[in-house]
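quick one if you have a minute, typing this from the bus. theres a chain ive been looking at and ive put its sequence and its fold in token form underneath. please have a look and point out which stretches look like helix strand or loop to you. anything you notice is useful, everything is just below.

***
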Amino acid sequence: MSSYTKISVVVADDHEIFRQGFKAMISRYEDLEVIGEAENGRELIELVANLQPDLVFVDIKMPVMDGIDATREITTLETGTRVIALSMFSDDVYVVDMLQAGASGYVLKNAHYDELVKASRVVMNGGHYFCNDASEKIHTFLKIHAVNSLKKVQDPVLTEREIEIIKLICEQLTSKEIASALGLSQRTVDTYRDVIQKKTKSKNMAGIVLYAVKYGLYKG
């Protein structure tokens, strides 16, 4: 028996062959279980509302409703479902749009299965996961398109401790790891994360990372 609590997963992609291959891959891991699949964004939203999965892997390019719009709606359902984009596209616009929509991660479809599983576990532990290509795209996009924003003082007043925690979030540390590094309780770190999320108007930890890079709090 596995010591992990099973992570319930829904996969959304308009290609049945890919969905079947993804399900076969997931079945090899004891702590992951595919409980549903969708071929477009509208079907995905209905599945999330009914099944309330822990995690969704969603393609960006789908008929009826694309992955970006679907992700945006999923974040309003308050099911606690986290989203990881799984796409052939690494264009900076797609990457940033997905994260701004509320995705907690971005992985390319040519990634090794082990990376998909790693991304699942990181995200379900409250972190975020960007493949190397996506991380580079985020930094490049923000450097090019946020020059004016960098010159502005960020709206929220962040304390030194909050900025310190933001930097550790950007390093993909979990609440438990941050607590250990700073000598705080995990509950205290979780409280800080909630406050930071509200101050920066971020939907999730990925949004905090975007904010940190945009305003020069984290260089990467």
Residues 146-214 form a domain with the Arc Repressor Mutant, subunit A fold (CATH 1.10.10.10). Residues 147-153 have pLDDT under 50 and may be disordered.
